[in-house]
Amino acid sequence: MDLLKQWTEQAKVALTEARQLCGDAHEYNEDAKNCLKNSVKQHQQLSELAKLTASQCARLDSSTSLIKQLLNLVQNHPTFGQLNDLHDRLELSLKRLRECVLDPALGSEYPNLYSFVDDASLEDLKTRLRRVTDGVWNAYEKLSGLLEEDICEQYHIRLGAISLDFLPPVNNDIAETLAELLLQVAQHYDQCSEALTIYSGLSDVEKKELIEILRYDSNHVPSVLRDLRTGLEETKTYHSTVLRYKQNVDASTKKLEQLAEELNKNQLTNRRHEAAHELMSAHTGLEIPQLAQELIQLERHYTQFAKSYYALLQEIHRRQAYEKRVRSVVDSLVYKLEQEQQTETKARIDFCTQYGDYLPQTLWNAVTDPPLHFEIIEHQYTELPNVKSLVDRKAKRDKGQQQNSTKR
Question: Which residues are the signal sequence here (predicted)?
Answer without folding.
Answer: none
